[in-house]
């Protein structure tokens, strides 16, 4: 990875790197915050996955996580939400599909299969790049979290890789993409018509079949305009209860789907992950 930009922030460093991704078949950018504690030793690594239409820049500039990551002593890695570039297929008139909407799956249907491999990028390629580039990154202590589509990605990735990720949380996640319009559209077009293939990227189905080894934290705004149609956290709550998984679902009165909501509870999530990753 080559450094594109770097700024001092809360005693640490906020950097943006660029690299050629083998999984995505395109150039990719990733933002990484390194806390001051990494100068003295190895620290946990927390990956944040963003939602529809976002890049690494949204969370890096709007969520205020740098202060809390510096306080807790964790690295925060913020990849993009999809492959990018002129040679990458897109649906330019659709905000919820194509570039900016990779849904953290490995696409199998053409023309998406070559580039839309965000699951493999996050789970397999990116950790190696971070380990080889970022001083102080302890890849044996990884957590993952995200927002909306990224919350879906964080939950499904953690549930499928419990040996890699020791903690997982989400802000307003799409927990059952096989049952809501955003997910039905994306999974159908990326993966095809066989809905059994979709279940590998559905947090409700995964927690029912695989369980989870610790608590899961979810914050959800009660005034979220997507709550009833697209997010449906009650489905995940029921699935966790049936599977014996400890879920802390916090319904937050008056909060919507925006980064005002995310930034309001970001400190809680950073501290919650840090406690699990340093304990």
General description of the model:
The two termini are 31 Å apart. The chain has one domain (2-278): Alpha/Beta hydrolase fold, catalytic domain (Rossmann fold), CATH 3.40.50. The relative contact order is 0.14. 37% of the residues lie in helices and 25% in strands. The chain has helices at residues 56-62, 65-72, 118-133, 149-160, 181-191, 195-198, 203-210, 227-231, 233-243, 259-278; strands at 2-9, 12-21, 26-34, 43-49, 75-79, 137-147, 165-171, 216-221, 247-252. The radius of gyration is 17 Å and the shape is globular. It is α/β, with parallel strands linked by helices and 279 residues long. It has a 9-stranded mixed sheet, sandwiched between helices.
| Secondary structure tally: strands | 9
Name of the CATH class: Alpha Beta
Q: Output the CATH topology.
A: Rossmann fold
Annotation field: number of helices: 10
N-to-C terminal Cα separation, in Å? 31 Å
Strand sequence of the main sheet, in spatial order?
Answer: 1-2-3-5-4-6-7-8-9
Give the amount of beta strand, in percent: 15-25%
